[in-house]
Amino acid sequence: MGGIAVGLLLAAWAPRVVDKEPLDLVILGGRVMDPESGLDAVRNVGIRDGKIVAVTEDLLQGRETIDAKGLVVAPGFIDMHEHGQAPRNYDFQARDGVTTTLELEVGTADVAGWYAARQGKARINYGVSIGHIPVRMKVMKEAGDWVPSGDAAHRAASAQQIMEMSELMERGFREGAPAMGMGINYTEAASHEEILEMFRVAAKYKASVHVHVRYGGVKEPTSGLAAVEEVIAAAASTGAPLHVVHVTSIGLKDTPDLIALIEGARQRGLDVTTECYPYTAGSTNLETAIFDPGWQESMAITYKDLLWVKTGERISEATFAKFRKEGGTVIVFSIPEEVVRGALANPMVMVASDGMRFTGPKVHPRGQATYARVLGHYVREEKVLDLMSALRKMTIMPAQRLEKRAPMFQNKGRIRVGADADITIFDPQRVIDKATYDEPMQYSEGIPYVLVNGVVVVREEKLVEDAFPGKAARAPVAQ
Length: 479
Known about the structure:
Elements lengths: L1 H12 L11 E10 L4 E10 L2 E6 L8 E3 L4 E4 L1 E3 L7 H9 L2 E11 L2 H8 L6 E7 H8 L11 H4 L4 H16 L5 E4 L8 H13 L4 E4 L11 H15 L3 E3 L2 H5 L3 H13 L4 E5 L4 E5 L9 H5 L6 E3 L4 E2 L2 H10 L2 E5 L3 H9 L3 E3 L14 H16 L5 H8 L1 H7 L20 E4 L22 E4 L2 E5 L2 E2 L16
């Protein structure tokens, strides 16, 4: 009788094997952290047909198994601000834990064509906004494939041209753009009425407007604070949701005032959000309107604070005009460390990389290492924020920003049954950024597994070369 009793006791204690049909993949024994529900416990995760079908203490059987003991199993990171939308950028982002990458600031003038060019070829999920910058360039017939330096930057639009912009914006939304992109700092001649009209179009389609605001820096009356006031007024007037991009590089030392302004608008019912990246330097193109006369006073910096990425040299007064005429990317050292720490610690501020397109051997490291830097440097080493708070900023918060316009995001940024199996598995004791300003083309470490739509794209910290399961992250296309 004693043996029978012991056997019954062991049977009652042992985990139950569920779902007799083998799953495609199971993740066993990891610390599952889901910012939506607050779950933070050891669980097994089952995946079938690209979806999470089980999150359980029970045993699971799968055709493939990942042993995640000692590792964190988190929703895949959603980067709402990545300009590098090419295969090599996707490789670096996958190694940094990103499973969905979105170009929502600059965007495109051809939403349908942009998505078609990536279908079946992407390692991670991809998405793009309908962008005011490229639409303005198209209407004003300025050549180029990114930001303007000619008429689209410096010439006021006629009423007819504003109407043409509105029509192109509407077409982009009908083609499934999940948001509107806007960079008023790059289109300085855009009138307040033009900006309001773009916000009206976004409101019609219930789309968030992701804005690089008109001014940056601390010099009044063209301060970052004044620029955020402009777009909050546009959002309040039109009802369009607003997302202020990279708040730290706009506000600089005055960033706390910008965050307080956004928080006040939210407390009074406006749908306003913001983001930051974990670096003390920004990056953009030297030939743009951002570096028109007055930039030194606005940003409280000078020539030596600019790094010319083509050669890695610091710019001087003698080389500034030459490089500006040539055109190219600079890294701008302008953000105080305490500002970065304060923004990351604020529960309202999301994380987004603002990663750059690769145009040479040097580039800002943020597109390759933002997420590992937050988890390794600012969570583990500096304890600026706790791990769950950091994950919330990288997963559920971006998903919730986009899901009203693009319902597919209701199944991203979560570890729960029915969610897309976009999953990042990392070692909280080892995850760290390796990319630097001097050596930016280095993969992050401590992220051994990344899954996109249930397919392993990073295995044992190596890219799976033939894995391209990325899908379009898109709003419904009008029929």
